[in-house]
Specification:
Elements (H helix, E strand, L loop, with lengths): L4 H15 L6 E7 L5 E7 L2 E3 L2 E7 L3 H8 L2 E8 L4 E11 L2 H10 L2 H9 L9 H15 L10 E15 L7 E8 L2 E7 L2
Antiparallel strand pairs: 1-2, 1-5, 3-4, 4-7, 5-6, 6-7, 7-8, 8-9
Helix pairs in contact: 4-5
Length: 192
């Protein structure tokens, strides 16, 4: 395996993009409630580099609130066609306004309207309420530019630990962990 976890992740992600039929960038994001109870859901990775792993959300959503209260999280990628997974743990930081604006502008018009219309994670009276909000924001913005909502932005997970797992015969799987250290990464193999 590559000794640089970011390069290795990029290799595996590129292979997943060629082999996974849907959403190779899907990842399970685990956060914790203020009481310390785990909370997990699927989100999409929207960027990765040596600074970390980026995703976007409504800041007023459950995950947004949990990350504001406890800025640590874990990610898990699972690529069934490759029989591989990657686990990432670390601290969370907000992306810059410029990064959030650039990504938001790249989204489809319908997705930008949806960001305004959805009161993510809050009770929905019925589907009609969401559709009504979409119609209202569609009329409000008309053909003009749709600005990024002030409650919508992104987060970057700054890795402290990255584990690569590969299926091997007889359940003697290959596990390689990278742990952030002062001089780069400390790496070791783990028993399956």
């Amino acid at each position: 395996m590559n000794e640089d976890p970011y390069a290795l992740f990029a290799e595996w992600m590129a292979e997943a993009a060629r082999s996974e039929p849907n959403d190779p960038n899907a990842m399970c994001l685990a956060t914790a409630t203020p009481e310390g109870r785990p909370s997990a859901r699927m989100v999409l990775l929207k960027g990765h580099d040596a600074r970390g792993f980026v995703f976007y959300t409504n800041l007023e959503s459950r995950k947004g609130g949990e990350l504001a209260a406890n800025p640590f999280a874990a990610l898990c990628f699972h690529w069934k066609t490759l029989t591989r997974s990657v686990r990432v743990e670390g601290r969370i930081e907000a992306v810059t306004a410029e990064e959030a604006d650039a990504y938001y502008a790249s989204r489809s018009r319908g997705s930008r309207i949806g960001a305004w219309a959805s009161r993510q994670s809050r009770p929905l009276e019925g589907r009609w309420a969401l559709e009504k909000a979409v119609a209202e924001y569609t009329m409000k913005f008309g053909v003009s530019e749709i600005p990024r909502p002030p409650f919508w932005s992104g987060f970057r997970l700054l890795p402290e630990r990255i584990e690569f797992w590969r299926d091997m015969p007889f359940r003697l799987h290959e596990r390689r962990v990278f742990v952030a250290a002062e001089a780069g990464w400390r790496t070791e193999a783990l028993y399956p």
